[in-house]
Structures are given as structure tokens and as C-alpha cells.
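Q: Focus on the shape:
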Amino acid sequence: MGGEINSPHLEKNPKDGKNSIYRYGTNIIQGWKKSLEVFNICNTINISENKTIDIFGIFDGHSGNSIAQYISENFCNELSKNGNFIIQEYKQAIIETFVKIDKSLRKKEINDILENYSLKSKYKLTKDNNNDLDEEDLNRINTLMDIINPDNLEDVLISDYVGSSGIIILLTGNITYIANAGNSHFIIINKNFEINNKLIEKQKNYEEEEKNRIKIIKGLKYGKNIINEEYSYTRGFGDYQYKTNDFIKIDSQEILAEPFIYEINQSDIKYIIVFNNGFYENFQNMNMSEKDIDNKEIIYKNIADYFLQYLKDDQKAISEIISDYFNKYIPNDLNQINDNNKNSQVNSNNLSCIIVDFFT
């Protein structure tokens, strides 16, 4: 998923904003990954003259930037055109938009757009042009060779081997919808500055259900010898090499575009913290003891505690608070580690975080 480079890219991409209901901040850093494949959205959609819907999201690419970048640029427009969105059936509108965008990635005109993004020359498969691919890229190609005819490489689409996770927050005024397709994360903190542990448990249960679903599907496709294989993500855009099992229905493939949706009463929220899996793994590696490194509840609590100590000072921009985390916990060289934590290591992922702070 990227590999390390000789020195990190430490440029940030901060953004802040506010209205009468909340303030927000977001930031992204490429870090030690060799390309930037994560894209955020912070937008407002006009429903009518007197009603707007605010939307935030993180789209985190797999094996390239193209799909994540395309979705970040087009998601809000597609959602706003959805018939259920117009009649304020937001949950169904979100589901339909995720699925519609995912299906559109198979169209030639969309594939042409994807090829025009910055990594097109690196990730486009041809018979003759693969001298610039590293070992990880070649391994991915070899995997593809198991499911396609190498004589027809020109028929391979970007979405066959590139994908993206997606998590969005939709603020409707009464209900907040969080839709997650992939391995991104979120934390809800209430107005008593307490974590909503029920939502953490729901996320864990969802992950366990997904693992069990994949075990069955993998067994149907490959046989019982590898049904215990676990994916790091089971939902997301693209990655169509995992969506072509002829033995099962289209809505039961190994990876699905349909997100899992959480509905929260907006009056119960003080902070929403959303972050990609690269951020989660960085915090895991740089801040957790060996005995707690796989304990999601403790990791979420520690992430919440870290930000709470700074968010209560509402004079500091949220993007700056996130930037301070990057500065503190992304090593500047390969020899720099956290002396208090032997698990610390360079994290070869992009890091992205969005925080929404509701005024009391």
C-alpha cells in the first residue's frame, strides 16, 4: 500500500470553518508514503432557500490516488442529484450514491478520467510499460494475472485494481448520519465530554459480522482451506477484482460499495472525530503499549483524550491542533522513534483527520 521513502513529506493541507452551530477543522499529511492518496471534503449542499446540508468526508485510496480523488471531486454533486436526497430520505440517498458512484467506475468515460490523474503512468497496466513498478506493484499485477487473461490487458480498468474507502458525515440539523465503507474510523463525544461507547461497540460488531461474511464468501470461491483469511477492509469503491464472484449475488461480493450507516441525534454530540486508517495505525504504533496495541476501545479513548485537551481551548484552530499531532508523532527520519514505546515504527500511510466541534 505504498512503501517507505527516504524522507517524509511533511506539508499539510489545513482547512477550517464555522457557522452558528459548529466549527470544524481538517488536515492531511502525506508523511512516509510515497504518494498522496487520501482526499477530504468539507462542503455545503443547498436543499432549498432556507435549508442546507453540511457534509464532510475522507476518501482513502488503495493502490493509487485516482479513485479517491475522483470521488472526492464528485460525491457531493452526485448526492445532491439523488431523488431520495431531494425528498430528504437521507439514509437511502447515501446508500444509492455510494453504489452509483462505484458502478460508474466501470464506464469507459470515467476510466479515462481516472487515467488522467497524477499516478496514471505508474499504475496503468500494459504489456510493455512496467519497468517503473516496484516489488509491491509487481506482486499486485501477479495477483491480477490469476483472474484475467494476460492477452487482454488493454481491457483492464483502473477500478479492477485500484480502490478507495469512504467515510462521510452528513449534518441535517436533527440527525447526523455517518456512512462508512472501508476501514476508516470515527469517535463521537457527547456534551459531557464522554465517548459514546455504544457506537464503538457497534463498529466492532459490524467488523465481526463482515469478517464472518467474508469467510463464507471466500469459502465459496476458493474452498475451505482459506476461509479464515481476514481482510483489512470489506467495503469500499473500486477493487473490482474482489467483486466478480460468479457464484454469489452482486450484493454479496467480497467487497461491497454499500456503506454501513450510523444515525445519531445531533443534540447528543459535542465532537465528531473522523480519521483514516493510516491515522489510526500511526496512533497505534506511536502511542500504545504492547499490551493495548490491539485494543480498539483503549485506542479510541486515547485518541479522544489527546484531542480533548486541546479542543477545549476554542481559540486555537482545529486544523492547527491536528497539525500539532502530525508534528509530534510523525518521525522526521528513520532512526527517530518514541523512546517510551518499543512498538513505535515509521508508518507508511497518509494521515487524515476531520474534527467537528458543536457549540453548546
Notes: The radius of gyration is 20 Å.
